[in-house]
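Our platform keeps sequence and structure together, in a single record for each protein. Such a record has a labelled line for the sequence and another for the backbone structure tokens. Nothing more is needed to write down the fold, since each code stands for a local backbone conformation. For reference, a complete record is included directly beneath this paragraph:
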Amino acid sequence: MGQPRRPEVRGHRLRLKDDEVTLISGTRVATPARTWLDLCGMPQLTMDDVIAAGEYLVSEHERTFHPRTAVVKLPDLRSFVESRHRVVGLGRARIALDLLAVGVDSPRESHLRQILERAGLPRFIPNCPVVDPWGGTVWIDLGNVEYRTGLEYEGEHHTTPEQMAMDAWRDRRTRASGWNQVKITKHDMARGEPYIVKLVVTALRDHGYRG
């Protein structure tokens, strides 16, 4: 079979191993692990993009209102990459594996976490649980337990009346638990990494951070 030739489509031919192929509705396709490895070999994707794609695959958590099961567990993804040889993107995949975190819920949260990592800030845990004064659990997008600082990335769906009411209840519980809270939007992200880092550092310093 020849390579596909049509506008805006570039065809490639690869010889895949049996463990790199799966069936979906009777059609043979590359496995998620192999697809991620192929993404690592695409120069038009940044390392942040590659990490976001990897974190989508390995994300799993028991967050109350939408628990998540990993598409590929992180140890399995690592084993797959370590077993490959002479594949384009393999070197970048090995680097990215050491930067993946389990529990991230969106590409924007992944990019935000990478900004904080690059700045050398204290580690923020994805989907960090915080116990409120009433014994309930508040799930924070990214949380640092040592300095009781949480980050919430608020996408477009946070502007609906129902979601705004839920967010307000979450915010009251977070503050009552003694945590600082930083809300980040796409407009904040557009202002650049130094701006984001300054917002987070200010919140951390309110709770004793001196870095």
Notes: Helices lie at 32-40, 47-58, 74-82, 90-97, 107-118, 161-176, 186-190, 193-206. The CA atoms of residues 59 and 105 lie 7 Å apart.
